[in-house]
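Deliverable D4.2, example record:
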Amino acid sequence: MNKFRLEPPTSVPPPPPEPPSPDQDPPGPGQGSLAAGVGLAWLVMLLGELLVFVGGHLGGMLLPPVAIVVWAAILLGQGRSRTGKGMFLGLLSIVAVLLLLVAACFGLVSNFH
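Output generated by the structure prediction step:
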């Protein structure tokens, strides 16, 4: 009566193998974050330079970058390696933005013949 034939049951395929664990463990909560380090670097630079200019001590313009480097080194020494690395990356981004702004100003000035 029934023209349909059922195929015999097949076994379930084995589960896929688990991916290999990475060599490094994921960062724990005690190591901080890169974003926090970058944000701290920008905050220290902006507030530090503002205080230097308001105070009238133009000789202290190198104080905020030095403070960033010292604070990052302290964080690296305390085991908050991701925040310390983030502060170094933040300082690098500040230098890059400064370089781009100087290049843009030279580009604007050079077009005024």
